[in-house]
Design brief:
The structure is a homodimer of 493-residue chains. Chain A has three domains: 27-94 and 124-288, Bira Bifunctional Protein, Domain 2 (BirA Bifunctional Protein, domain 2, 2-Layer Sandwich); 305-416, Rossmann fold (3-Layer(aba) Sandwich), CATH 3.40.50; 422-490, Translation Initiation Factor IF3. In chain A, strands 3-9-10-16-13-12-11-24-27-23-22 form an eleven-stranded mixed β-sheet, sandwiched between helices. Chain A contains 15 helices and 27 strands. The first copy, chain A, is of the alpha+beta class and 493 residues long. In chain A, β20 and β21 (386-390) form a beta hairpin. The interface between A and B is large, with 62 and 62 residues. β5 (94-97) of chain A pairs antiparallel with β5 of chain B, so a sheet runs across the interface.
Chain lengths: 493, 493
């Protein structure tokens, strides 16, 4: 019905087109007039807001505090850390002037050449440089450490090929930036945050992830080590969903941030940074949704339950409403968000299709006959199954069903990932298997050369060296050189 | 004690310096490496976050939804509304390039001349243009209206003279943008939102405000009418604290946003926009704080109660902690945020001064003798008064005290404003009175010429034409021409 109504492309026909259409048709986001920048619409933003609130609470429980650092970064700051500038310089939006003036040769306005900045400013692609430039003034002694800051912010990376939520020139994210007195403490925080992201992905997004370490090639520009969570989308491609970087003393050194340690000796400060972005919206969509539209995990759905009355006239509606009102109250008292859609200018069939498209986890439909029978029709969005349930105790039933749906879509995604994960021994086998999508566990000699060769020949990258799983050594599938353990290869978003 | 410790300038010596010092010493914010941009530190951000959460809930209760529109605006968009571009073009940060490259003549990076944008992009000074450009695609029929969107965002206006929170190049704010089918509905929403701001200011910030209409001269660039809330700071200067603009059909016309009305005829959409910013932080500070530091209204204090144990040894501390723990639990159960500061590396006197500086509304101090007596010392920050209270029932006592403090600082600010508000008849009288600060109620002929003359000669501006109060007509104090009613003049931030 939703598919007919909204004419959504089937996943099996063209997965990429299905995604692009769904983002727009489900009212999540749309392209803006500015190349590569999107408008996040109210429904999409409401989901992002639920993610934000949840993560924000989780961060604060670990002692992290929110802050706000400037949007603009002096060009010279970006250059202080050699790898960092190398990684970001080629995709920076640059502010060169601070004023427009009336066009002397016509109408409209032009850049005022007299208002050129002495030093160009960069719109932050990430904030390590401006933040470590500030930390220099905050940190003198080990007593000032750790500093555990986070900010929710917009950032900009001038990507050439963009896709809504997955890769946009401007995106929203959070970036945590911690400063520590010891290498051990900084490493522990780096790992703590990637584990927090994994917990969020699995518990709230119902999205299984593999936690691991990036190869040198895929590391954050300026990090010693990057931890990642990698999820598998329905089409078998990998999506990097969150990263946590151990920066060692790189930014401490670049910005001369030192502290006097417990032995009264000066030392460079140790740091880490970690972030997730609106990319998670793309991950959420491609983990669970189907040909009828979005499938949202109940823990992140802005509306968890919708109730649609089936009525022929105002009298019937009034009777249904009388029955529904206490159910709405009861559901809300259980902390469940409910919408009672009694609009009379849309037919139930239209409403059903629309709520399917929007991924509302549970739909209750109730008509005059149901009231006579003391029943209600319950539809769960994940399986599209309908069942008739007694009105008596329906709130509790729905509360349990929401948890069952949350668990079911997680298990479904996990099963999909497991089915799409294979182990290969030879490079030939690898080349065949990678065409089928999914994660391939293979031995690799640990060199960037081999990694680059594989990428060039198969478009597959090393997603991560998993923290868990089989650690048996072997021989690289390409060079035959020793391999410490199998790593995960995939094509990716 | 705090003053000694932190060496804060007295308000009577130099109010402006007191403000600047307090912002830094209370750990609210500091200057950044980027001219005119500040870093909002964790404590300052926590207060802003409480403001945000409160306002966000209030907005949503009126049907407003959050969204996100792009940071960058094409230059041509800005020019679509003539007054709007006139108002903002002279303070715009302009992005001209999207890439840096290695400096061919040395180290570091330079702007890549090959990466020049075809059309320059402006960092939003406000988002009417990009939003109305988008609304064009959202609105076809009266059934699509109203559209009630808000965003929490950073904006940039290249101000030449900046002061932290009060006037910064980049600031944080929310901007609401509503589209309506009728002029009446749009006007009603414009007024609804200024009233919401007034309610927030008075109920949460404990800051009395006068709601009124701006003169044509002080109107938002592109509005038919601007409503404002004006507060009086301790030094008698006015601070514009929130505005709501009736945009009429100006942006509907500029961006060709039309809809088919109920009579099946095309019509331009009616609009309004409304916003408050981190400027409210400055207003909060200058409404209540004193020579010992911040005074925060309990409804916005991130920590409402601090408990400081007075102990000589670990044994005493353990005993105090045993008594304090259930009190902490009880306070939290009442929804009160409490910090129990049992750190043993700082003396109580240091802690007292620090919490005074930070404006924690209530401090409890408890020592071995108090436990023996079943009492606790309670200090309220607004009056700095101490009293001994029984431990029995202390949570309830504190809860009531917080409300009393909230009310007391509001009343104090209101009394101050009333004492500093005078009515004058002649321009000579006006010139004398304006030197003493405060609000001056005077007759004005309604012309921009007279308004400009007064501003030039006295540095006073018309803050607003109040919605309430005396509406007796009279004669302009400057020209003697007819005046519809008295308006409020003041010098302002």
């Amino acid at each position: 019905m939703a598919t007919e109504l909204k004419n959504l492309t089937k996943r099996s026909e063209n997965y990429s087109q299905w995604y692009n259409e769904l983002v727009v048709k489900a009212d999540l986001a749309e392209q803006s007039a500015v190349r590569g920048c999107m408008v996040i619409k109210p429904y999409g933003y409401a989901i992002w807001e639920k993610m934000q609130r949840t993560l924000d609470t989780m961060f604060k429980e670990t002692g992290v505090q929110n802050t706000y650092f400037p949007l603009l970064i002096p060009k010279s700051y970006l250059c202080r850390e050699a790898e960092h500038v190398e990684g970001f310089a080629k995709e920076c939006a640059v502010v060169t002037h601070y004023r427009l003036k009336n066009d002397p040769n016509g109408t409209g306005v032009v850049v005022d050449p007299d208002a050129r900045l002495e030093e160009e400013l960069i719109i932050r692609p990430t904030s390590e440089t401006i933040i470590w430039g500030t930390y220099k003034n905050w940190i003198q002694s080990y007593r000032d450490l750790p500093v555990l800051c986070n900010q929710w912010a917009n950032v900009m990376r001038w990507e050439m090929r963009t896709r809504m939520f997955l890769r946009t020139a401007e995106f929203l994210w959070q970036e945590g930036h911690c400063a520590h007195a010891t290498a051990e403490e900084s490493e522990a925080r780096t790992v703590q945050m990637i584990n927090l992201y994994a917990q969020f992905a699995e518990k709230y997004m119902a999205m299984p992830v593999i936690t691991g370490v990036k190869s040198a090639n895929e590391r954050f520009a300026g990090a010693l080590n990057t931890y990642t969570i990698e999820a598998m989308m329905q089409d078998g491609k990998a999506l990097q969903s969150g990263t946590s970087h151990n920066l060692g003393q790189n930014f401490g050194k670049a910005f001369d941030v030192t502290f006097v340690n417990k032995d009264n000796k000066p030392e460079y400060v140790w740091g880490n940074s970690w972030g997730v972005s609106t990319r998670l919206m793309g991950a959420l969509i491609m983990s669970h949704s189907d040909d009828n539209g979005l499938v949202l995990p109940p823990h992140l759905a802005p509306i968890q339950v919708v109730i649609v009355p089936i009525f022929k006239n105002a009298e019937q509606l009034a009777e249904i409403t009388k029955t529904v009102n206490p159910i709405v109250d009861e559901l809300r008292a259980l902390g469940i968000s409910v919408k009672y859609d009694d609009a009379d200018n849309k037919r139930p069939g239209f409403k059903f299709a629309d709520y399917e498209l929007k991924g509302i986890p549970v739909r209750l439909a109730i008509g005059a006959r149901d009231i006579a029978n003391g029943t209600v029709e319950v539809m769960r969005r994940d399986t599209l199954e309908k069942q008739i349930e007694p009105l008596e105790g329906i709130a509790k039933f729905v509360a349990d069903l929401l948890e069952e749906i949350q668990n079911n879509i997680y298990q479904k995604a996990l099963k999909h990932r497991e089915e799409m994960t294979r182990t290969v021994e030879t490079y030939d086998e690898f080349k065949t298997e990678i065409e089928k999508g999914g994660f391939i566990l293979a031995h690799w000699d640990g060199t960037t050369e081999t990694e680059e060769k594989i990428k060039e020949e198969t478009k597959a990258t090393i997603r991560c060296i998993p923290l868990d799983g089989d650690t048996t050594p072997g021989k690289c599938m390409v060079t035959g050189k020793p391999s410490a353990r199998r790593v995960i290869f995939a094509r990716n978003y």
